[in-house]
């Protein structure tokens, strides 16, 4: 029994690209389908109820503006993955990040979530939070996280000879 549906939350950061690559390898290995998902967080806008807007007509164009460009970017990524023979769907939504990722995992009956993590520490993590950690804590399916490591941080320090 292998994974047949892999959800890949994508924020277009280097760590998300790294997760996308791992997910593609897993999809090839398991003959699985990929779902690339981008979630835009927009405080004050609930796309289901359109809270914060007096007119329903005002919310729809805003929601489309918030998801249009990410959807196009996901489709570009999906096209390169489809050339490799992978089955790829894309979805761009507005909502709370972790909750929307988990809802989509359930909706699409995903077997696993593969996502990048920025690896923030200290005050940055406290102030910015961690979507990956929230997903990990609340998910009912396996979550594979991959941390992006800056090349400068992983490049060995060269010490001049004779130093």
Structure description:
By secondary structure, this protein is an alpha/beta fold. The protein has a single domain, classed as Rossmann fold. It has six helices and five strands; from the N terminus they run E-H-E-H-E-H-E-H-H-E-H. The protein has a five-stranded parallel β-sheet with strand order 3-2-1-4-5, with helices on both faces. Helix 3 packs across helix 5. The longest helix is centred in the middle third of the chain and has 28 residues. The N and C termini lie far apart (56 Å). The C terminus is likely disordered.
Report how far apart the termini are: 56 Å
Helix/strand/pairing class, anyone? alpha/beta
CATH fold field value: Rossmann fold
By DSSP (H or I, 4+ residues per run), the number of helices equals 6
Which band does the percent of strand residues land in?
Answer: 15-25%
The biggest sheet amounts to: 5 strands, parallel
Gyration radius over CA: 18 Å
Determine the mean pLDDT.
81
Q: What order do the strands of the largest sheet run in, or round the barrel if closed?
A: 3-2-1-4-5
- What is the count of β-strands? 5
Looking at CATH, the homologous superfamily is HUPs
Give the proportion of residues in helices: 40-55%
Shape: globular
């Amino acid at each position: 029994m292998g994974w047949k549906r892999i959800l890949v939350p994508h924020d277009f950061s280097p760590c998300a690209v790294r997760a996308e690559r791992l997910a593609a390898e897993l999809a090839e290995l398991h003959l699985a389908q990929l779902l690339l998902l981008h979630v835009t967080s927009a405080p004050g806008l609930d796309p289901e109820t359109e809270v914060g807007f007096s007119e329903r007509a005002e919310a729809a164009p805003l929601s489309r503006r918030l998801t249009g460009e990410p959807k196009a970017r996901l489709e570009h990524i999906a096209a390169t993955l489809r050339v490799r023979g992978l089955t790829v769907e894309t979805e761009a939504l507005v909502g709370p990040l972790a909750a929307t990722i988990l809802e989509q995992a359930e909706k699409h009956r995903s077997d696993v979530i593969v996502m990048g993590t920025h690896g923030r520490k200290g005050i940055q993590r406290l102030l910015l939070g961690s979507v990956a950690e929230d997903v990990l804590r609340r998910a009912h399916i396996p979550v594979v996280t991959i941390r992006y490591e800056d090349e400068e941080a992983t490049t060995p320090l060269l010490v001049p000879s004779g130093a």
